[in-house]
Protein: Flagellar hook-associated protein FlgL
Organism: Zhongshania guokunii
Amino acid sequence: MRISTSQIYANGVNSMLSQQAKLSKTQLQVATGQKILTPSDDPVGTVRSLELTRAKEKTEQYERNGNLLDSRLRLEESIVNNSIDVLQRVRELSIQANNATQSNESRQSIASEMRQQLDNLLSYANTKDSSGHFIFAGYQEGSSPFSKTTSGYVYNGDDGQRQLQVGPARSLPDGDPGSEVFMNILNGNGKFQTATNPTNTGGAVIDAGTVTDLSQFNRESFTIRFVSDTQYEVLDAGGAVVSSAAYQDGGDIAAGGMSVKIKGPAAAGDEFSIAPAQRQDLFSMVEALAVSLETPRNSNSGRALRNSEINNAISNIDQAMDHLINKQTGIGSRLQSLERQSDINAGASLQIAENLSLVNDLDYAEAISRFSQQQAALQAAQQAFSKVQGLSLFNYL
């Protein structure tokens, strides 16, 4: 068989180029730390790598959502806690103002501080997050959720609650609308509320009362009317007398599963009402108390009316504090759930990273050994080509 010089040269060059290509690929693998440089290197491994990369990106997004959620919830928790502190101070001022040693002037000073606390509450309710969004406005986070008008305090947001996905099958709300936090609070004792008729002439004061028999409690309205300073009767919503008894200062008066106490001297014609609790906003509760303290009362009946109003206000504030504490508990539960989910996400990220490493990462010991072998093979091919190149007959003529 005849072997031409051009064929010898071609085979030698092809051998060297093949070894150079293998060596170059190994060098690139060592430089990048990746054993799959192109899909053709490992089609199955490439598909698996893409799946794991997508799973990694999703987990990273869950972690980013979790960080945002944690920031929003901690800010809301702080605001609710500050609001509870404000209400506690308002309650202290109410008890201070309910002391008989206070004058109209001193109560007005107390009312002045109470209005400052009210401004603090309104400021807390209109808090923005680090992005400039109002946290209590629901979906209307670009506008101030609460404002004061001539008719009272108005909620300008909505009841929307944005959900953030923090896991493959887990979403958590990033806050609460202001309507659930600062509005819709049951007044009175949470079941019913009491009130004193402003036209009363006696000095009797009614307390907030309690529910003593749930089986008889049907959220009915009643009126306690004094027919004399020693005798009263209880009327239902239709004006029918349901009971009557002799008045005992500080004694219990029962009606419809409810019980109230009236203390102090009553006069004929005095009336006190019992009505189902109504939902009220936190701001109007404090506002009504401040107005009561700012109003001068110089008669026994006026002072008794103020005492009843303060008692009712304290009961309202207690309900508002309980409401905010429940909200605070809910926020804390969400933070705990988020913390557990973050731990799960961290474990998933570690597992995905390990699997990606198994698919993509280069075994440096094997690659360096292969590199040395390929380098030796290239040198051998080059030396062989050099020897074959010198076998031409023209070198001997």
